[in-house]
Write a structure and sequence with these properties.
Largest sheet: 2 strands, antiparallel
Distance between the termini: 65 Å
Order of helices and strands: EHEEHEHHHH
Oligomer: single chain
Strand content: 5-15%
Helix content: 55-70%
Structural class: mainly alpha
Radius of gyration: 22 Å
């Protein structure tokens, strides 16, 4: 008796990715309305080119979704995107990365990066908390010195950096 692994079909992933691109394109288009998306008397308004990029994203994503739906029964639906176990491995990296981006928005790049590096060192590398936070802090201190002090390139900062005058 042959065991068959559960798989995620490619067509479902195509539809999910197409939906995400429609959402991203819609956000770009909506923001283009806010900034102006027409050709003004002195040239293009700030949202002119982003509007068309967003439009291309939406139209392309809808095209992919329609093609996927039209070929739904033709290919038998047997193309496997990945196994469920493989997809879980991807999510183990994707979900913490999304959380990192959300923390970055509120706490700034350096605090979020310290937490992100330390979290992965403890979780995936099984390092101690002390080593993990020391490495996270060290990497971020080097990046802070490199970008903020040497190159004078300000990166997103949060309330902790504000306490130190940055």
């Amino acid at each position: 008796m042959e065991s068959k692994e559960k798989t995620i079909q490619t067509r479902w992933m195509e539809l999910v990715v197409a939906a995400l691109f429609v959402i991203a394109g819609a956000v770009v288009i909506k923001d283009s309305f806010r900034t102006g998306f027409r050709w003004g008397t002195d040239g293009p308004e700030p949202g002119y080119f982003p509007f068309y990029i967003g439009l291309i994203l939406v139209v392309g994503a809808i095209w992919v979704a329609v093609q996927t739906l039209l070929s739904w029964n033709k290919d038998g639906g047997e193309d496997a995107f990945s196994t469920v176990d493989e997809f879980k491995l991807v999510l183990k990296m994707l979900i913490p990365t999304v959380i990192y981006v959300l923390v970055l928005i509120f706490m700034g790049l350096y605090v979020a990066s310290i937490l992100f590096i330390a979290f992965f060192m403890v979780w995936q590398g099984k390092y101690s908390y002390i080593k993990s936070f020391a490495v996270g802090f060290g990497v971020c201190a080097i990046l802070f010195g490199l970008f903020e002090l040497w190159f004078l390139v300000p990166l997103p900062k949060g309330p902790v950096e504000a306490l130190f005058g940055y």
